[in-house]
C-alpha cells in the first residue's frame, strides 16, 4: 500500500484487519510505505488490527512519515523484517497497543517521528524505553 499520490500523501485513510505476509522481492519491499518525497505527509491515517510477518519491511514511511495519525493494535513479528515501523519524517502520531517483536530500538527497526507518543506498546524489556514489557517512550537510537 503506497500512500503517495504525486501531489500529497493521501489523508484520512484507514487500513484495518489485514495480514501482510511475504512482501519480500528485495530490501525495498514494504507492506505500507510512502514512496514519494517532497510531498505533504499522509495525515490522519488509522492503521489498526493488522498482522505483519515474513516481509522485508513492514511499515517504512521514510522519508515522508505519517502526521497526526494513529497506529494501534497491530502485531509486528520480528523474524525477518529490516524496518518494523519507521516513521522518519512523521510528526505527532499516537502509536500504542501494538505487539512489537524484536528489539525496541532504531537499530531493531522502530523509528519514531518528531513529537510522536509511543507509550503503551508491548515489547521486550530493553534499556530505559520499556518496563516489564511495556513501552513508555520512543525507541532508543541504539
Automatic annotation (TrEMBL):
Matching Gene3D superfamilies: Single-stranded right-handed beta-helix, Pectin lyase-like
Protein name as catalogued: Right handed beta helix domain-containing protein
Origin species: marine sediment metagenome
